[in-house]
Batch of 4 targets.
Target 1
Amino acid sequence: MSGRVDVGHGRKQREGLRVARRLTAALTQGLTPRARVARDQLGWLNEASVRIGTTLDLLTTSQELADFAVPRLADGAAVDLLESVLQGEEGERPSGSGRSVKRAMAVASIDGLAEQLEPDKVGEISAPRERETYFSRAMATGRPVLVGRIRPHEYGQVAPTDSAADKLRQAGVHSYLMVPLIARGVLLGAADFVRVGSRPGFTEADLALATQLASKAAVYVDNARLYGREREHVARLQRNLLPHATPRTPGLGVTSRYTPTADPLGVGGDWFDVAPLPGGRTALVVGDVMSHGLAAAATTGVLRAVTRTLMALDMTPERMLARLDLAARDLAEDQVATCLCAVYDPADASYTLVSAGHPPPLLVTPDGSASYVDVPVGAPIGAGVIPYDSRRMTVPPGSRLVLYTDGLIKSRTEDIDVQLERLRARASGMGPAELDACALSDLAPDGSARFDEAVMLVAATRRPLAGTDLCIWDLPANGSAAGAARKFVREQLDTWQLGDLADVTELVVSELVGNALRYGGAPGHLRLLLHDRLVVEVSDTGPDLPRIQHTSLSDEGGRGLQLINMLCRRWGSCRTPSGKIVWAEQDIP
């Protein structure tokens, strides 16, 4: 029974189509020639709604308008937009001056006409001219201009220069039509049209048709302007939330890349940071908020600020991510982010890496081979699943560690494993200098940058600093440790020709070693690092971090850290698996 019903339904549908065709033919036969022209024009304008504004790109929309008008409306067409519109501004109200700066956006013509006329090249900016033309007059008043038949003396008013006027005359241009592009009462630009040869000149009907076409196109142009402005605002906010410069880091050269997506709703979420840590160590962080737009950009700013604060406390990477997870749970947007943190220690050229659901870093060795680092992957930030595990590895000098966000490997058509392998193959085929200077497009899969933003950090390790700019000594676990530390410091500062800092540094190291003996069980090693500043570090096995105490005049002790606080630029402490490190930094004269 169901088969008979389907057959009957199909038969009725075909019969209905035949009836509709007969009715359309009958109505068409009954139309007058004028009504048929009006019907064709209406259909043409409806087609404009489909052919123009297919993208939210100003250049593409302008070219679609010019192409649609030729040859149906004109033999040649050009579209110009105000420079202020291209900068994302509102446009201009017709002011009567007509002296606005405009830029050529599109040109279309029948075969050979454009070469004869030589219009302004696409992208060329035209400054206001003293010579008044029909174009400038229309831009000043906001009203269209119709010249059905150009008289000899009028070519100078159609063209902006005498040479352009001669080319119009020689090409046989005999009719001119110009319509401003106005949306919401604001002037955005203009489109002008010409006819040549034996074709009839423009009429009032053509003017009405062009005005309606320009009205439709102006809406699309305005939409593209608003779209581009929104994208620029979000991209600018995102860039302002990222580091403006990479700090100088001992033993490590870092280059960074950031590319926003073409979609304004896709901007926001990818971030990175490079922060110097006490003792010459460097923290490299990349993250990706799992959303886009202004909300993601705001979350990016919060997470980066919290990350820098936690890194300033010199926490281990795994503890830093755990604290960051706790902070992310309080975000109003309830957003989740992936994050990868790598802390580089120039003393032994080692990395400590921790991942919160982030793609693995890529290690490129000096011989050009590339492989992914197997880092324990924890839950994303904000998921509420902690703790995180770290991996420590030593790399040879000249190695490159590549940290990135998933925008570098994301593709709409291929699996993530395929893209990871493609990234590894491309990186392994580059030399060290080429990898440091490469663009994201050199490593990303084809088309990936068009729909997602991406961040990449390339960290190049240099020779280990130990024995040159960094010195490490093991201290005795008894009362002679302070004297030994002072001797090591004075001899090394003389070698570095920094004898002026010896007195203060000896006093600082004596206090640090004394605290390690009194409260930390015994001192472990003394580390002296020279880069932008002079850093002194003393390790011990005690669990408690030191802090400045309030002392009275009668107290015999408790002023060591107060003294260090006054003599040094800054000081601090951090926990280690075996205890803690207390450090102090001095400015170098």
Target 2
Amino acid sequence: MSSPIARRTVLGLMGAAALSLPHATAAVASGPAPAVAGPDVTLVDNGSSVTLSNGLIQFTVVKSTARITDLRLLAGPQADSSTNLFAGAHGNGYTEFNYSGAPKAVALTGAVFSVVSQTSDRVEISMLADDPSSLGFYVDIRMAIERGRPGIYNYWIVKYPEDMPDGLTLTQLRYAYAADTPAFRWFVVDDERGVQQRPTAAELKEAVTLQDSTVVLPDGTLYSKYQNKSNLEGDNHVFMISDGKVGLSLVQASKESFGSPTRQELTCHDYYDGMILLWHPIASHYTANVEVSKGWAKVYGPSYLHVSGTAVGDERANVEALWKDAKRAAAREQAEWPYKWITDATYAATERSTVSGKLSIASLGTVANGWAVLYQPEPDRQYQEITLDGNDWQYAGRGYVYAAKIAPNGRFAIPAVRPGTYTLAAFAKGAMGEYRHSGIKVPAAATVNVGNHVWKPTSHGKTLWQIGTPDRTSQDFHIHGGDNGYYKSLTWLEYPYEFPNGVDFKVGVDDPATDWNYFHPAVRTPGTPAQLQWRGTTPDSTLEAWKIRFDARRYRRGTGYLDISLAASVFSTLAVTLNGEEIASFAPVPGVRGDGSSYRLAARAAHRQLPTITFPAGLIRAGENVLTLTPVSPAEAPTADNWMQPMSGVMYDAIRLQVDRT
């Protein structure tokens, strides 16, 4: 179903892809967008809707709902003013909101339409809902179109005024672009997965459904919308659907408003007879809901819907060229962030600063795969009646999270930061835990150097052993189907066959890559009854214990320290015993109760570092010792999430045992 895009192929198509539009889309320097050629931008009022055009594309949006009913490519290869790219019974662009007080997902209705600004270079429109009787929060959906840009900017100003109902929790805010015709069967999520196709109608008709939007095709392969998530949200800035001639690409130039750099989210998947692109300003799929208080306000986006056509050759070659064009558009949008034309004070376009510095890790020297993060803590954070770490940027949904990769020499530069006081956090492959430094003051429109920071990851003494490398994933352990097997099959169904006696790991003898599973299920046979029946597995709800065997000397004095870093947790509990004596119990495991990692085909979600487990070193015997990890009790998911309960368990990032003899 997929073929990675070879570098040589991409380079060979660069010239052809550049011809897909009348104007080049190479990245430009940051700052105001340069003047570009092209027809004037126009707005036509149709009464209940408006039509915006710039000679390259044209779209029609309903004033009261922000629903795009019509989208057309007007110029360049494959231009056809008579074809609506949102054709089909379910083709359109639409809103979807999930929040407390709403029994189900609702859409925008009764919005007040206005024109924010209109010139021959740009038109920006507003669809504002601010009625407590119909919606529990304020939302102003803005759309804009520019001269010479074949796409639609879409951003939201969301507020929680005093006159709204109390107790607002936002679970999902979504805008979707749906092309409901069978021709839209191609898609690209990233270079690694390459060009892919959705299954044919005939294949889907014969497929076996094993969970929502997840089927086994007649040839035995899995197809699921969860396979198309963005696996590293900090790096992936664009994804695309195509009919083999025209590409619709969703560009996210910045992830500041929804939790970069490790957040995962759905991108595109099949939709009725065609495909759909998803923009999620808020979604708790792999992390937590957003709970806000009165007076809160935030700007989400803009995202940018890029529309382009190409005429290179066959459909697959066309899609490769369209993908290259989409990546150029994404680079251009990233270079122009933040957009100076957005005048809303919360967006603070002209007040952004760059924050730079250097991080050294005492135990590692160089930084490998590291990230620097700026965020504002939320000390009163709650989720499903559980208090979360308010100083954890993963849960900082009310504010913004700014991030940048750390270079191997330790230097980092975080762009486009709003004025304020922040906590600097950092994490890197190989370092247990996370670096944090509070009180970073960022003034407006400045270049801020926060100096050199030295991180001394916590160490308690001599390391007896460590399983796994801290990197916030469980991908370095055994995964059925290979490195990315977690999204190629329902891996949990194979666990009882690959580990018929559970995980019984001997330190220094066994290999974590083959003998330690990436997912520790709560029960012997994880999976729903229907999944187990399909696999031919006899259900067994026995709690699943894992053992770590290690040889050691006898310790007459001192303290043992066990550090457990988790890559994910799905309604899990965990008890730890050493040679039959319990040394810790987590019921439940701290953090988000159900991050959906297993069910949603991931090898990580909300990372958490369990409190260090201490015990008298005298519990360690001379010779072989046995450390046991087992659930405390069967999983208990809330009614709303009980569909994840059969796949409950934890994913380990790394486990380390140390001893301090003093």
Target 3
Amino acid sequence: MDLVPALREPLKKALGPATAKVMAENLDLHTVGDLLHHYPRRYEERGQLTHLADLPMDEHVTVVAQVADARLHSFASAKAPGGKGQRLEVTITDGSGRLQLVFFGRGVHKPHKELLPGTRAMFSGKVSMFNQKLQLAHPAYQLLSEEGDEAVESWAGALIPIYPATAKLESWKIAKAVQTVLPSAQEAADPLPDSLREGRGLAPLPEALLKIHRPHTKADIENARDRLKWDEAFVLQVALARRRHADASLPAVARRPRPDGILTAFDDRLPFTLTEGQQKVSKEIFDDLATEHPMHRLLQGEVGSGKTLVALRAMLSVVDAGGQAVMLAPTEVLAQQHHRSITEMMGELAEGGMLGGADKATKVVLLTGSMGAAARRQALLDLATGEAGIVIGTHALIEDKVQFHDLGLVVVDEQHRFGVEQRDALRSKGKQPPHLLVMTATPIPRTVAMTVFGDLETSVLDQLPAGRSPIASHVVPAADKPHFLSRAWERVREEVEAGHQAYVVCPRIGDEEDDKAGKKKSPEDEAEKRPPLAVLDVAEQLARGPLQGLKVEVLHGRMQPDDKDAVMRRFAAGETDVLVATTVIEVGVNVPNATAMVIMDADRFGVSQLHQLRGRVGRGSAAGLCLLVTEMPEASPARQRLGAVASTLDGFELSRIDLEQRREGDVLGQAQSGARTSLRVLAVIDDEEIIAEAREEATAIVAADPELTGFPGLRTALDALLDEEREQYLEKG
């Protein structure tokens, strides 16, 4: 975030090649600017001890504590000279908790001399468990001399910064490296316009960088964080505002539904009235479609709120206006499900001839990668001639040979599953940029919508249609109370006997492909030597045991598309009692007669995913039941997560819980962009006000000066944020 060469200087030159190599390999830090923006995670107060009681298992930690006790043990060893080995056990304390450090072999001599009772030091290592006690084996450490060890005092004042670190790069080594490059902070170019910074009483950037790395007081830390949060929020919102500004200047064909067209005919045949929410959101979409600039709208809605119906009405209005609409689904199962439900909703209106024909009907075509050659040829012909007004498909729609007659609207379902290139390739198939509607059934907190989807206008459907039934959710602790699991299968039988159907969801398929794919085991698996429960195993056990006599079928992603479709059709028709499946049923699957769901190993799924899965039941007039089966102990974070899911049906509340439990870095899709997250101090849940204000300021600045010619510091910060990968990610809308 700089204008000057000082911050762009490679760490190789500033710190030497060896240190620079470790920084690059372990923390992805390459320049002086990168290192200055690697902020401390927290601060320890000199003279005050840390909390050892809450250390997380299997994580690399840095603690400041005092040696309470040190004992050297000898034991017989064939490997050691003279047949004797040595083990040094050091107990450190913070007054509230104790932690054991262990050193073996030749590594005991130095700590034996230095770690004497009463000594204070920083210790860094991976937390493990031995004999039911937390310990650090062979931790690195740095003594903290009260008299004034100059090497330490030079970078650690009253407040000792603790940096995000790794096994090969301890916090104090990072701190010493920061000390070396800190003078360069004076030359950092400020991305915030003077009026904005002064109006809010924010510190200049060089001052904020000095205070975050070397604070004298807690007030210094607060001042620095307040300022740096604004940097992150504002620069990101400027990037998104420029994207919105560029999109708004593109031409598009206005698509207005004609009176008494296919949309009117469709509305007339609906057996229910639209909810207020559906009417409001539809108006927002129709207003956008009527403009000569491409719509960019995010439609987020609760599970079962009727997003597909809203999207279909938008598609029909485009057909009325002489254009074509396409719906892109992430999987073949979902594409087929959408095709089936849309043709059922439309009835004879889906059996039309030419676009705009007097019979008001159009053709609804499915296009997926596994279609036979003849069906595919016909589908491609219908797209190219305009015979098909509505097209539903998977990524097969993106191939070069797929041509549209007049593409007016692209609806993307479950946007987060598509790469940027795929989305852009589809949009490029219009004569002019088509309108874009992105749908997600994962409710997103307002701040995340402003951050991740900040280049899209947002519509929210948070009202369930009349007649939808509540879903009762319960955690089933299979390890503590095995009879609860037996009762779960009894409940499934009761639902089937009452004329309903059930889903059983498992985390994996269970054939040899899982092993070939080298699926990584979770820490829970390794600890318990317990593989995740599998569809094929569970289906067989249920059919032979508790659900014997019921019609049980399986569904998973590696089945042939025709087989998957046949299974779904049988289940939808009520021919199957229980469907044992992977998360392939997570979105879009709509079987109103399915009232019960049992999720095995529920702790292996995320909060949002569990909410999605649960939304497959309770879609009819009968009450829904969701049972979350887990073997995790009651006190574990995984059990608490399941308790949260069971306690509320509010997806927006759950999305906040989900976000609070994940690292902030995930919010910008760090894994998707491949770049380091730009959010270091900004917390998207807690800093809603800053993000909202930054969005307003950014929109105003970009409207007045789209090229930012009057803001050179801001331009530089923007260039640093928008490396190639991140620019692509920001263009996800």
Target 4
Amino acid sequence: MPKLISATYHPNIEVAEFICEDGRHLLRSGGTLPWRINNPGDLTARMVDGVPAPRKAKGYVGFATTRSGRTFLIFPDEDAGREELKANLKRLHGDRTIPEAIPVYAPKKENDTEKYARDLLKTSGIPASRKIGECSDAELEKIVNSIAEIEGYHANAETRKETWVAVSRINATDGSQPLPDAEIILQRGGKEETVKSDATGRFPPVIHPADKSAVHVKVAEPKSKKAVVVGTIEGDVGRDFNLLAKFRRWKGVAGSEKVNSSTVGQRKPMSYVVQPGDSLWKIATLYRTSVAGIKEASGLDRDRIYPGEVLLITGSGKAKPDGRSSNPPSLAAKPPPVSAPASPGAPPKRVRVSAPAPPPVSSGIRSSDSERSKEGTGKVLALINAMPDRAPWMAIAIAEAKLRYGKGEDVLEKEIDYHVEIGDGSKFLSRRAWCAAFANWCLLKAGYPVDNVGFRDRRATLGRAHGFYEMDEEKNIRNPLFVELGQPIYGAIAIATRKNGHGYHVGFAYGKEGKGNLILLGGNQEDRIQFSPFNMEPEKMVEVIEKSGRKRREIVKSPSYLRYFVPVSYHEQAKKDLANSGLDSMDVDALNGVIGVPPRPKRKKPETKTD
């Protein structure tokens, strides 16, 4: 089966919708909920502020919130669901027997706990005194099989239905913001159905009919209230469409065609800010261009792209037989090609760089074609994907890092002084820590307020790492412009903090390295702008040499820990980001190679202490 990369659930029609890596959609209906979402153990998602935020669960591709309000994990296949069920049993219930674990695993408010435990012991054949963590792999398989049977994974098999379909999506927007609770009418044959957009402006997916017939989309005219057709969805390929309610008309994914257009016209250049989880293939497919076209327009000489980078999308991007893009030369300024070092020991290749990209607008992509309003300000046209960017300040930080190309602070301060730029009262990067000044500069350029007017010593606070959460140490006054998160998300302001609670460094959360390191993009990291790993675990393992010479390993508290913050105005988006942090595992040296920073020296041996 093709790889399923994401999924969602439609509780009103009890259908699980999976998206395949090739763009097709798989719909699963009938059977039981565990079967529809490939979750044999009915595992639920941990919730934080009403948003699913699993901490240790792995392998899931989405969440299913049912009509009862419970939120379950969706897995791409049964094997992935079984593996996480095993991991869950060992992680959370390894020290318990089955009779001890079931009241926690299947609480009384939702299950007949005693019957559940009896049935599980009977069908699995595991002794009641055996702890789950002591079970062999074969015995654990029996427990998983029994739980799947009890949860109903195999029930109603005769009603199961899997259908591969083309699916189109519709977003309601006024041209700059998504519109919740907007209404459209879908006409299939002689039947009509009225649907509403959700809080993010998205309507339920429109499934293309199996008989190849068209689905007409209608909206009510404001004055007459008469339903008129504004577009038609048909064909074998699903697409994303924006309903620009402000103009009562449809715009296609390119922002220049109607919904039923079958041709791809020439497009104006558009800048796209890479989001967590993006790939060149994914972006090219979404905007009906080619990978080669995006690379050519953006000056890329590599296939890997990184969150926060700005790409240019132009024309139809259809590749010619020789592999070159058919896009004409773009009139927009091209970002320079940036290459990683050819080998770990080779110096980074120096390239010409352009000025930092301007702060991204509220959509992930924008057209370079704009009109002038009466006030003389530019009004962005053809907005695509009205969903807000994730951490828009990251595009500023990435562009600045590329522009400065690994320069040390003694050279960098001759070009720009972030202390002076934000007005924190200091001068010269080489004479004072400037990590906070750089972070505040990026936030300010992205349109987020950083200055607490009226607070004592407010200027100096702009240059302090702990200033993101503490305005006055003596009076314990919290910074009202930022809110703290319980875990990192892409773009979070990460404060490295000592045991006494004092923040000594700040950078932006970007990705993970290994199991316990968080990669931060920040200033004053080895005296320049670069990516650096920071330990995010509160404890660490060290090797202890006893007086007898015997070695043993011991867990000790880390001398520092990380705290995470976002601007207050970004908090609502941050809650959604917690469901998918976007913190993928990355290679720090590869990231730094893109911005001209040489590889790190070899790591030192593990820390050792003596009694």
